[in-house]
Amino acid sequence: MYYKLKKMSFCFALYSFSLYAIADTGQTTFQYEHNWKSIDRKHGDSLKLIHKTNDNWQYEFKFSTAVGGASLRDVLYDDMQGGSGGVVIQRTYILPNHLGSLIPSFELGFGKDLTLFQPGLKYAYKINNNWSTNLRYRYEWKKISQSERYKVAKIAGSQVSYVANGNVGRHRIDWGLNYSGIKALGLSYTFNYYIGDYTNTPYRVASGQLIKNKYSAYNGKKVDYEQEFKITWNYSKLLRPYFSLSDVSKNKTSDARQAKFKLGFNYLFGVADKSSLKTAYQTYFKYAHSYGTRSHYHGDNFGLYVDFDKYAYVGISVDTYNQQKNKLFIDDIVSNYYQMYGGYHFYLTDQLILTPHLQARFYSGGGYRAKSKTNLPHYQVGDVSDSQRLGTRYTPGLKFTWLSHNDLAIYAQYRYQYRKVSRNKREDTIQGYVGNTSRNRFDIGIDFTPFANWNVGYQFSYLKGNYVLQNNKKYDYQQAIDIDWQALDNWQINFSAQDVAKSLRSDTREAKLKLGLTYSF
């Protein structure tokens, strides 16, 4: 089977491919969940895209959000900010003679100023037609970013650098029991047990001396546990709402516990079927590594994208960067933001397409705390006019595209970008006060296919804001050239070079280079 991918971009480009490429490629599910804790009285949300292939592989991209501010109790969808995010990869191996299945997995996660590595192994067994059980072990290692791991203090008259925030390793054991004897409902119970400790030696300063910190998970001890009871309503083959009630700990130092309520749903996009336009969709994995040629910061962006036969799209992505200059890949990664985006294509004619779309971006505040003015680039990695502070950015937009008959597309696009900073993070002693901001963005671009398996695009953007964007001015421009090469039937190599501003206070600019790949399931 052969198909041709058009320009692949998270900036809402159009896609074109053969329906024959989407037959028998697995299933993709979207999950949304809202949670609330009874004592903390704080709300949170999580979103996932999960793709399962026909050969038992599963790829899960996820992120969570939280309500900002310690005083914001019992408040929904206000002052939101990014929490954690990442990717989980696993495969199911069916054992012979109905002995169950083994499911090895690996999770790479990101939070504010930390990276998480979590390998695991799960055993699942079907007792009979109604009952099943599972047992899972995972080892979780949290690595704190370098700038947050170390502090400096005056000890015995000398300045000493010491580990203040330790890396943590935890053993996690889960046992679950499931019942499916009621046609409309699914019932499950899960018990989780945790035991952990520091994998290095962190200290605190007391009376001019360094004192070793003792790891505590719950009630001053290294162990903790959780219980969860979950009810799933099998509303249809595609939509399954659920509710769960969990018993979780309140904090590390006391035996207080609280209830955690979750309300959510799983929506299966159906089975990709080349004979039906209603169920024709393609799922893509996309990864890109970026580098600023003058700022010398490295970053990564990856996620899942679902295209519904050119009529609509939805995606989730995670964006990270290295806090230290010239550090590659996962050397000192912190999360930058997570985003959910989608749009719908209205075909005015066969060649004219109108696409309203929306993007919601949630910043975790990774790398936010600058120790001095020399660390200010931590606020501004990737986009100097955007603070790294906790908060959100909402971007509604409208795109108009003209498609020619000779592999040429010309488009114009307008986006309104509203940046909301968490209220308790708007003021600091280094950068001063940063409030909510907005800007208008206008894009024009062209995509064409000069050779078989190659696609080239160019985009020019003009930005006008109510705050300084670059060179002490409230306007800016950007340019980008994208080159995509269809190397194999399912693999595409992506290269991009962007011309972006480097400083808010001068006219200095830099090239931001991106190299990545796209894989179609």
Verbal overview:
The chain is mainly β and 521 residues long. It contains one helix and 32 strands. The model is unreliable at 1-24 and 374-380 (pLDDT under 50).
Keywords:
globular, disordered N terminus, mainly beta, 1 helix, twelve-stranded antiparallel beta barrel, 521 residues
Mean pLDDT: 86
The rounded distance between the terminal residues' Cα atoms is 13 Å
Approximately how much beta-strand content do the residues carry?
over 45%
Radius of gyration: 24 Å
Determine the structural class based on helices, strands and strand pairing. mainly beta
Main sheet characteristics: 12 strands, antiparallel, barrel
Q: Please, how many helices?
A: 1
How many runs of DSSP E, i.e. beta strands? 32
Oligomer: single chain
Percent range of helical residues: under 10%
Flag low-confidence runs: 1-24, 374-380
Q: What is the 3D shape?
A: globular
Enumerate the strands of the largest sheet in spatial order, edge to edge or round the barrel.
1-2-3-4-6-7-8-11-12-15-16-17
What's a quick, concise take on this entry?
By secondary structure, the protein is mainly beta. Helices cover 1% and strands 60% of the residues.
Topology (SSEs and partners):
Layout: E1 27-37, E2 43-52, E3 57-67, E4 80-91, E5 93-94, E6 101-111, E7 114-126, E8 131-144, H1 146-149, E9 150-155, E10 158-163, E11 168-179, E12 185-198, E13 203-206, E14 209-212, E15 223-233, E16 239-249, E17 257-271, E18 282-292, E19 298-307, E20 312-322, E21 333-344, E22 346-347, E23 352-363, E24 391-403, E25 408-421, E26 427-428, E27 432-433, E28 437-448, E29 454-465, E30 475-486, E31 491-501, E32 509-520
Antiparallel strand pairs: 1-2, 1-17, 2-3, 3-4, 4-6, 5-6, 6-7, 7-8, 8-11, 9-10, 11-12, 12-15, 13-14, 15-16, 16-17, 18-19, 18-32, 19-20, 20-21, 21-23, 22-23, 23-24, 24-25, 25-28, 26-27, 28-29, 29-30, 30-31, 31-32
